[in-house]
Amino acid sequence: MKLLRYGPKGNEKPGILDTSGRVRDLSGIVDDIAGDVLTPEGLARLRAVDIETLPLVSGTPQQDLRLGACVGRIGKFICIGLNYADHAAETGAAIPAEPIVFNKWTSAIVGPDDDVEIPRNSVKTDWEVELGVVIGKPGRYIDEADAMSHVAGYCVINDVSEREFQTERGGTWDKGKGCDTFGPTGPWMVTADEIADPQNLKMWLDVDDKRFQNGSTKTMIFSVQQVVSYLSRFMSLQSGDVISTGTPPGVGLGQKPPIYLKAGQTMTLGIEGLGTQRQRVVAA
After folding, report:
1. Which residues of 263-278 are buried (b: 16+ CB within 10 A; e: fewer)?
2. How does DSSP classify residue 124?
C-alpha cells in the first residue's frame, strides 16, 4: 500500500494511492495516517478494504493536489548521521563505531513539495536525500532479528541542514537540522511488504536539474535492521515515529569548493520505489 495525506496545510486527510495512481479518500475508515493505524493490526484492516470502492479524490497528486507529510502526528523524528561509507569519506570523517543519533524537531516537517525556507542569517543551507523508516509496532530493547517486524513502511525524506548552525555554532547538531521546513517527508509511505530489500534502493537528488547525489542504500554503514534495534536501547520506539537513516555522497558540503542553496533554486529528489519530491527554495 501507498498511504498518504492530502489537502491544505494543517487540514490534511488520510488517503491511499490506487493502481491508477489516483488518490482515494480513507477518512471514512481512519482519522489519519498515524499512531495505531500504522501497527500491524491497523495496516491489516486497511489491506482488507477494497480500494476501488473508496471515494475518488479529484486532482492529480503532486500536480494540482497537494500532499502533506505522509505520516501525521509524528512523535519522534530521529536521524542517523554519517551513515553512508561514501558520504563519510567525502566529508573527511571517520567511519562511526556506533550510529550517530540526532533529532529534527517535528515543526520541521512539511509536505514533499512544499517550499523549503533558508533560515535568517543562514550561509550554508544544504540538501540530503534520505531513506525514511516509519515505525509500526512499538517496542523497547528490540533484537536485531525482530527489528524489521517493527517497520510499517518507508518514505523519502530530505534532511535539509544548515551546516554553520550544525557544526560551527557550538552545542549539538540539532539546531542546524530542525529549522522550519527542513523535513520534507513523503510523497507517501510505502508499506514494508512492497519493498523487497531496503538495503538495495537507488537514490538521487538534483539542484536546478544538476545531479548532485546519485547513491544507493547499499552503502549504508548501519542497516535499517541495525538502526531500529540500536535506537530501541535508548528510547521506546512508538507507532508513527520516523527515522531518517542518513545520506549518500554528493551533498553541498562535499563539493570542492562547497556549494550551498540559494533562494530561487529547486531541489528534486527520489528513492527507487518510494516516489519523488520537488521543493522550491525560498528565503524565510
Report:
1. eebebbbbbeebbebb
2. -
**DSSP-derived secondary structure for 43-74:** HHHHHTS-GGGSPBPSS-BTTTB-B--SSSS-
Q: Which pLDDT score is estimated for 171?
A: 86
For residue 123, what pLDDT is reported? 96
Do the Cβ atoms of 158 and 184 come closer than 8 Å?
Answer: yes
Its pTM stands at 0.97
C-alpha closest to that of 267 among 126, 152, 92: 126
Report the chain (284 residues): mean pLDDT per 10 consecutive residues: 98 98 98 98 98 97 98 98 88 90 98 98 98 98 98 98 94 94 98 98 98 97 98 98 97 96 98 98 97
Q: What's the Cα-to-Cα distance from 227 to each of 26, 29, 31, rounded to whole Å?
A: 31, 32, 30
CA angle 177, 174, 37 (to 5 degrees): 75
Q: What secondary structure letter does DSSP report for 29?
A: T
What pLDDT, on a 0 to 100 scale, did the predictor assign at position 206? 98
Q: What one-letter code names the amino acid at 55?
A: P
How far apart CA 90 and CA 101 sit, in angstroms, is 20
Name the β-bridge partners of 110: 184
Which residue type occupies 84?
A: Y
